């Protein structure tokens, strides 16, 4: 607990000194708290997410970002429950040098999570994109020793090149992002081994458009593990479609892999009769019966015997910045946890209520 207070005091001192050299300082973050009374009458509650952050625009070419996080679902009773997740400096090198070139080069240095992905999926939770394990998404870090990222954008081309490496350089990612018209996406390669030819190739794309008043979203992805060890998945793939019309929203997401051609599936339904009011329902299926999830940052898995993992029915209302929600989870036969509120917390069964505020 002493270490926690020392960290908080240091953060306050940092905040006090930032305005001295920063031309613009902003404070933001997100807080989510929830409670649950499950089907067995057991009541639980937790701070599902608390992530305060500071963004300091040091000058016209440098931006410093700092974020603290909690271990999701844990109380503030030990110093390890609250830690520094991001400390990164982003620099516009070509701008700082005053060079008029047909490209821009930016660097990001420090402690951060690069994430070479647009997280393109149609469901609220990402059940069909990253929930199945291993998901092979190019999203590493942050690493204790830090890392470096380079981003190169060419003005005459609708794409950008990206490079990331941890320190001392045994983990690496290469990425190409951009798009043409209504289609955007990523092409990625990540290597975490000294063995030549090892790594993961990934491609993801998403079409966004409107036809006769219907707003459409269609993402697809494919990720392939080169020289994948025996007994692990060689590849994973998926697709989805979302349709929005007036107050109605419908989405279906699908994921498969080399073990199960049909694995994770999800159906989302929502109605917004008023702008701040939403009534929603989500159905989660695990056809491959190889369910994976995390609780408090700890990996856990089960072997379900029934495809239906659970159904979430609820209603939410925005009172200004915060959103209040209440819902009910109908469990599957195996009573596994399902993601709620965009996978910010999970519930096995019963009634839940929560507040979610970004600031």
Describe this structure in words.
The protein has 359 residues and is mostly beta strands. It has two helices and 24 strands. The protein has a 20-stranded antiparallel β-sheet.
Quick tags:
359 residues, mainly beta, 20-stranded antiparallel sheet, 2 helices
Question: Approximately how much beta-strand content do the residues carry?
Answer: over 45%
How would you classify the quaternary structure? Answer: single chain
Overall structural class, as computed from helix and strand content, comes to mainly beta
Main sheet summary:
20 strands, antiparallel
- Indicate the percent of residues in helices: under 10%
Span of the ends, CA to CA: 26 Å
Describe the global form. Answer: globular
Question: How many strand segments?
Answer: 24
Q: What Rg is obtained from the alpha carbons, in whole angstroms?
A: 22 Å
How much is the average pLDDT?
Answer: 86
Q: Write the H/E string, N to C.
A: HEEEEEEHEEEEEEEEEEEEEEEEEE
The number of helical runs is: 2
Low-confidence stretches: 293-298
């Amino acid at each position: 607990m002493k270490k926690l207070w020392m960290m908080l005091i240091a953060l306050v001192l940092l905040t006090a000194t930032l305005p001295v050299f920063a031309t613009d300082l902003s404070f933001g973050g997100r807080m989510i708290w929830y409670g649950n009374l499950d089907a067995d009458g057991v009541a639980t509650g937790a701070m599902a997410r608390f992530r305060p952050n500071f963004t300091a625009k040091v000058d016209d070419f440098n931006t410093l970002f700092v974020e603290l996080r909690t271990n999701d679902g844990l109380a503030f009773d030990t110093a390890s429950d609250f830690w520094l997740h991001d400390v990164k400096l982003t620099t516009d090198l070509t701008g700082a040098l005053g060079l008029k070139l047909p490209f821009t080069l930016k660097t990001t240095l420090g402690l951060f999570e690069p994430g070479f992905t647009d997280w393109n999926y149609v469901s609220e939770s990402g059940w069909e994109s990253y929930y199945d394990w291993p998901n092979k998404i190019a999203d590493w870090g942050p690493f204790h020793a830090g890392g470096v990222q380079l981003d190169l954008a060419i003005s005459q081309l609708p794409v950008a090149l990206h490079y990331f490496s941890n320190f001392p350089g045994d983990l690496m990612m290469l990425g190409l992002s951009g798009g043409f018209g209504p289609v955007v996406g990523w092409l990625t390669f990540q290597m975490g081994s000294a063995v030549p030819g090892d790594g993961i190739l990934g491609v993801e794309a998403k079409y966004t458009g409107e036809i006769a008043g219907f707003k459409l979203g269609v993402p697809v992805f494919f990720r392939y593990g080169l020289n994948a060890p025996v007994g692990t998945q060689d590849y994973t793939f998926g697709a989805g479609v979302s349709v929005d019309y007036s107050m109605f929203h419908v989405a279906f997401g699908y994921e498969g892999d080399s073990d199960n051609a049909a694995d994770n599936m999800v159906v989302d339904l929502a109605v917004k009769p008023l702008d701040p009011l939403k009534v929603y329902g989500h159905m989660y299926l695990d056809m491959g019966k190889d369910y994976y999830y995390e609780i408090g940052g700890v990996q856990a898995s089960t072997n379900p015997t029934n495809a239906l993992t659970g159904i979430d029915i609820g209603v939410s209302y925005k009172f200004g910045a915060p959103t209040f929600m209440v819902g009910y989870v109908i469990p599957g036969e195996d009573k596994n946890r399902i993601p709620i509120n965009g996978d910010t917390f999970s519930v096995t069964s019963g009634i839940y209520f929560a507040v979610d505020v970004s600031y």
